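#dry-run=false #mode=assembly
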Amino acid sequence: MSVCRPARCLFLRTTSTTLPKPTPPNRNFSTSTPRTARRRRPHYPSIKASDLKILNEAASVQFPTYNPTESSLAAKKYTPAQLAAIKAAETVIDPRDLYTQGQDRSDPWLLPYESDLRNMDPVKDHAPKKSIEDIKGRKEFRRTNRVERDEAIARVTTENMAKFYPDGVPTGEKTSEQHQLWEEAIVASMTQAALDPRTTYWSKDPKVVEALADPEHSALLPDLPRIENRMAKMTRRLSTEEEEDPRQKRLLLYMNWDKQQLKGVRVKTLVVHGVTNQTRMGKIRSMYYLTIAGNGDGLLGVGEGKSVEPEEGRKQSVMAAIRNMRPVPRYENRTTFGDLEKKVGATVVRLYSRPPGFGLRVQHLIFELARAAGLQDLSARTPRSRNKMNVIKATWEALCNQKLPDEISRARGKKLVDVRRVYYGGSVH
Amino acid sequence: MSLVNLAHVCSHMQNASKARLGLTSVPVSKLHVKLMLGLQREGFISSVTLGSSSPPKPFLLQSTHDPEKLEIMAKKLEAEPWLSYPVETPTGKKEPLGPEIVHTVNVPENPARRRLWLGMKYWNNEPVLKHMKLISKPTRRIWLTSEDLAKITRTRESSYVKGLTHPGECMFLTTDRGILEARDCVERKIGGMALCRVW
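#status=ok
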């Protein structure tokens, strides 16, 4: 039996040569009884007449209708359109519903201010927008030709000048100051007019061109108004500004810096480990951080921080590092003045100055320090202990406490000459 | 020429500068005297005085002319500089600005009792001479040619002697022209036996 051919014989009731007629499905697909039709709710709540009376009275007491004096007062306050809207709203909302269901909003989305919604608040409300349907007629425009453009510029300039001088243009002899203001106003209004779309496009319908310059037709929201208030000025924050850190504030005060200078400082935490303080109550675990800071141009600092809170300890160390920044003398802004050696604990760090282009062929900790200080050619040895903290401290102290040639010459009473600089005629830095 | 004694002198100078001594003494020998004069020429020490076991009178305590008289002499010298030279007279040499005040130092007859007194220098709370180290050792003397020295003074290593890499480092050699600094040797193209390096 082919799969394509239906197994007709299985479904045949009688032997018949005619095709079976499609029968309407009379099967139940489930054994559960069908759900009865939903009972229709009455259009009106079935309330006893006496209850209804009480409700009506309560509603009319709570939400009374306006008497004529109130209506006349409202007419003074609201425009006819607003008054009509209020009346429509009053008729739509049944005072009985308001009485039974109405309540003060307490949801999170309630308006955080009380307003009779009469006025547009530029801060709280969205500015009203107009769509293209608000312009009647054909909305066609094209680029202006030269004559139309000149004419439009003249018109718009006059408009702008009227904004500068709302009381009319001053006549008679002008002082030099007034004259300067006048010229500035002319330049400003001419520039604005040249940028105005009304001077670039022309249409038969002047309303279309006006719409181009209308902020209500713009997709952009207008700028928020600036609040000219001393309090507002003091507390004004830009959205790009991050939260003020009191520690950072103190640091800036200490360094006599502004925030911009702080951005140029390269900070890196090089050592992190846990430390414990054994007390009779038990162990107190905290985190130790050692951070270096440098501006990449001859300033280098090392700071330590320790706290139970990891972030706190890190911040401590960063601030200490920036506060501890000390100048690192550099020969030709690239390497040290001669070889240096410093011992801290069991750690000895030897730093060797190297020729230009040598690079920083030093171990990672000294590399970070040298990079932060802005050294480019250096090699180093740590022949003894390589304790990270001591290596960093020794390197820092060696770099900061270099003996400078001019100090040596002063101390010895001899003249020292930088032969490289003399040979190259001062063309190396 | 005992390098053992020189080694002792080197250590002594380092110790004296660490102890911030103003004046110190070393045993006298021709080598020591010449080396110390070399150090003085390079500005590492302020004074070199031959004396006894007791220190010589410090310069500040030596008798000098009055400041007023010195001022008059300075004015005279400015007007007539040739007055600083003595004038030949039939009775002998005569100094136009008056006799010089000569400070005499008591030097013992016995050479073994003599000491060389050195004035140490300090600048900005740091000793001027901080490190002094032998290059040739008593058991291994090192002679350097002027070519070696040229390399060494240019901070390169040569003949197993490390270059002068520390800022302001000096090296003293004993040559047939006396005890000289390495750069002087390079200038005069002479070699010699390396004694010590100082920085």
